[in-house]
Amino acid sequence: MTIMILNGPNLNLLGRRDKNIYGSQTLADVETILKEKFSDIDFIFIQSNHEGDLIDAIQSARTGTVDAIVANWGGFTHSSVAIRDALELLNIPKVEVHISNIHAREEFRERSVTGKVMSGIITGFGINSYLLGVEAALLMKKGN
Which of 50, 98, 103, 130 is catalytic? Predict the structure, then answer.
């Protein structure tokens, strides 16, 4: 099984920005934890601050080589119609994750444009949101 983990803008700065909101662990820590916890899964890790790169990655998942997507779109969650439209074409489990609880923050963060076309959203569990996202993707895949 192959799961693509997509991370949007500023997530490359995990562990160095807003530690009270996002914690002190880095994106490399997230990747290590996922590989250790799910050693039987092949992960493709992509982080980009560029919307087009993320759309290219989503479109590449349409080739049948990716079984599920777990994604933290960062700020694009609230604004990217283009990412939303690319996701809509994918017929695999798609789980959106957020480290912080987007519903307990600024009002503009409560709305997820991308969430409307995801299979589900996990928000507010720190980096454990990624673990829960992978678990959810696995459960959905087994249900198919």
Answer: 98
Write out the chain's pLDDT in tens, 144 residues: 999 999 999 999 988 887 777 777 899 999 999 999 999 999 999 999 999 999 999 999 999 999 999 999 998 988 899 999 999 999 999 999 999 877 656 676 667 889 999 999 999 999 999 999 999 999 998 875
* Active site annotation includes 98: yes
Whole-angstrom distance, CA of residue 70 vs CA of residue 93: 8
Is position 103 annotated as part of the catalytic site?
no
Residue 90 CA, distance from chain mean position: 15
Report how far residue 142's alpha carbon sits from residue 63's, in angstroms, rounded to the nearest whole number.
20
Instruction: State the catalytic residue, choosing from 22, 78, 103, 130.
Output: 22
In the numeric block, which tokens belong to residue 30? Answer: 């997230």
Q: Quick one: CA dihedral 133, 111, 75, 60, positive or negative?
A: positive
